[in-house]
Design brief:
Layout (H helix, E strand, L loop, with lengths): L4 H5 L1 H6 L11 H6 L6 H12 L7 H8 L6 H5 L6 H16 L3 H11 L2 H14 L15 H7 L19 E2 L9 E6 L2 H5 L2 H13 L2 E4 L9 H4 L4 H14 L5 E4 L2 H8 L1 H4 L4 H13 E3 H8 L17 E4 L3 H4 L6 H9 L4 E2 L15 H4 L1 H18 L3 E4 L2 H13 L5 E4 L6
Parallel strand pairs: 2-3, 2-4, 4-5, 6-7, 6-8, 8-9
Antiparallel strand pairs: 1-3
Helix pairs in contact: 4-7, 18-20, 22-23
Bound molecules: iron/sulfur cluster (2 copies).
The site of one iron/sulfur cluster (SF4) has 14 residues, from helix 3, helix 6 and helix 7.
Length: 422
């Protein structure tokens, strides 16, 4: 029997599917494509065929398992609680085990992203050439697909002049000489480090003003989301080990990126390959807190602790739930509690707040046309609210929401929740 180690670990989930098709009402990809293979049911079926030895790992199979946002809307609404995300990710890992990573991904994941210093150097280099990226569609047919998507009329965020890592100290004591209530590690994440350092600075400032000692370990590494969700479990496990060591001396690990918090928590879900890893990932997972849950559940900030920045007074805000916050971490009330507690801000709920924005990490690079169609629905929900600003807690969603509000010529500006707080 063929060695299908990663798929065998999730076989029970694929077996749970009773083929009811209920997921068809919720899957954003199926809603656009209407093909069985874009649906959780179809993907489950193909994986079971592989397990039975009746299906090969062909390139077409790679396309099918690649075309999933991992948004977990199917999981949240499946009557059998089938965990399709685990089936899809394991299938990608099996594909990588069998066929290896394409050269470009191998280099990007292993030589760039998994090496914090090298990653910084490459992003700095990219910054110098950012102006070269074409601004409109149809002009870059000669570029490889992933570069083409970066320039395909997309509103690309500017790389920060100074990265967060170069603006903050490793140890940040509580302000005003207070005794630390707790010692927290700040996980920067690449988007906050390279694109939105002001968000990281705001978070560290807020926490140290509220009696928290914040450590920003220089040895922390990429969370590994893009890497292990693409099936590179080998590099994913390497990064998990790096981050566990970097944050071993703190009470909690806090991050302002919902994708990072969920990825760090979920090493224990997707990656363990032996008992020792399982125990170590489980222990690490308990320390991870998304900023929104840390503020409300651990620090227990009261509305009077939160002051709205002057420029947002009188504005109406609506909230977008990142998939990695609402479905991966079940964090729904905490950000709303923060927003409704901000005196001077009017809050309005959008009808499809927890619908995926269409980003899905590298999904939006390879399937940008689909991303735009999925985002159109999110934009319609935002338009209905008449809000002035859209608030979220995932820099990945921010990038996609900004791209699409600009593309749809909408007046709404997009902010990270912490940018609203004084
Ligand atoms: S994945 Fe769940 S919702 Fe979809 S067909 Fe299977 S059992 Fe039904
Ligand atoms: S995770 Fe999202 S995109 Fe993937 S099959 Fe489920 S609903 Fe569809």
């Amino acid at each position: 029997m063929e060695d299908l180690k990663e798929l065998r670990k999730v076989e029970k989930f694929a077996d749970q599917c009773m083929k009811c098709g209920f997921c068809s009402f919720f899957c954003p990809v199926y809603q656009e494509e209407k093909t069985e293979t874009s649906l959780a049911r179809g993907k489950n079926y193909l994986v079971k065929q592989i397990l039975k030895g009746e299906q090969e790992f062909t390139d077409e199979m790679g396309e099918i398992i690649g075309k999933c946002l991992l948004c977990k809307r199917c999981v949240a609404n499946c009557p059998s609680k089938t965990q399709i995300d685990r089936v899809v990710v394991a299938a990608r890992a099996e594909m990588v085990r069998k066929k290896g990573l394409p050269l470009a991904k191998r280099f990007t994941f292993r030589k760039v992203m998994a090496d914090r210093k090298a990653f910084g150097r490459y992003v700095r280099l990219a910054q110098k050439f950012q102006w070269l990226l074409p601004k409109s569609e149809g002009k870059i047919r000669h570029l490889p697909d992933f570069l083409k998507a970066l320039g395909a009329g997309r509103n690309i965020p500017e790389i920060a002049k100074v990265f967060l890592r170069d603006q903050v100290k490793e140890v940040n004591k509580p302000q005003n000489g207070q005794e630390p209530k707790m010692r927290v590690g700040f996980f920067t994440g690449c988007a906050i480090d390279f694109i939105y350092p002001q968000i990281g600075i705001k978070i560290i400032d807020f926490l140290t003003r509220h009696g928290v000692e914040v450590i920003v370990p220089t040895k922390q590494n990429c969370c590994g989301a893009a890497i292990y969700f693409s099936g590179d479990f080998e590099t994913g496990r390497y990064l998990a080990g790096e981050n566990i060591r970097a944050f071993k001396d703190v009470d909690y690990v806090v991050t302002g990126c919902a994708s990072c918090s969920s990825t760090l928590k979920d090493y224990e879900v997707y990656l363990p390959d032996n008992e020792e890893q399982k125990r170590s990932y489980e222990a690490f997972s308990k320390k991870i807190k998304d900023l929104t849950e840390f503020l409300t559940d651990v620090l227990q900030v009261k509305p009077e602790d939160l002051k709205l920045r002057k420029e947002f007074e009188g504005k109406t805000a609506t909230w977008h739930d990142p998939c990695h916050l609402v479905r991966y971490q079940n964090i729904r009330n905490q950000p709303r509690q923060i927003l409704t507690g901000l005196k001077g801000l009017k809050y309005v709920e959008m009808s499809n707040a927890d619908a995926c924005c269409g980003m899905g990490g590298s999904f939006s690079i390879y399937h940008y046309d689909l991303t735009k169609k999925i985002a159109d629905k999110k934009m319609a929900g935002i338009k209905e609210t008449d809000a002035d600003i859209v608030v979220t807690a995932c820099p990945g969603c921010m990038i996609n929401l900004i791209d699409n509000t600009v593309r749809c010529e909408m007046p709404q500006k997009v902010y990270h929740i912490m940018e609203l707080v004084e």
